[in-house]
């Protein structure tokens, strides 16, 4: 990935025990500022962004609008809690586990292996999940 634009925060960043949400917020802010790396443009609001919004019970475009108004991560999450679905700690734990393990011996394992082979720096046996892949692909250590 080139350094001409900004990559978002790690998917492992969390707020209130919820992984990925700070990354979603970061992607929205970077896009608004015109500095989000182009590799991220096509999937805004899709995949993990969408799953996170579905878990929270809010529409991506509505959450994006709140973030675009200047809401901090904490304020955006509070808005989502007020306008979405109340989840139990068990449900949150399940969702976080799902995100952390996505690609490990599941229906997306083959796709993960394909993605790993796209670049020499990601074709590694220690990359077991999509979060691992994202970390390495974006230049962070496992």
Brief overview:
The protein has 142 residues and is mostly helical. 49% of the residues lie in helices and 3% in strands.
Task: Explain what the structure shows.
This protein has 7 helices and 2 strands. The chain is mostly helical and 142 residues long. The protein folds into 2 domains: 7-101, no CATH class; 103-142, no CATH class. Strands 1-2 form a two-stranded antiparallel sheet. A hairpin with a 2-residue loop joins strand 1 (14-15) and strand 2. The longest helix is centred in the C-terminal third of the chain and has 13 residues, at 89-101. The radius of gyration is 15 Å and the shape is globular. The mean pLDDT is 95.
> What is the average per-residue confidence, as pLDDT, rounded to a whole number?
95
Q: What is the topology, as strand order, of the major beta sheet?
A: 1-2
Main β-sheet description: 2 strands, antiparallel
* Series of H and E elements: EEHHHHHHH
Strand content: under 5%
> Structural class of the helices, strands and pairings?
mainly alpha
Low-pLDDT ranges: none
Q: What is the approximate shape?
A: globular
- The total tally of domains equals 2
Measured as a percent range, the helix fraction is 40-55%
Give the number of helices: 7
For the terminal residues, how far apart are their CA atoms?
A: 17 Å
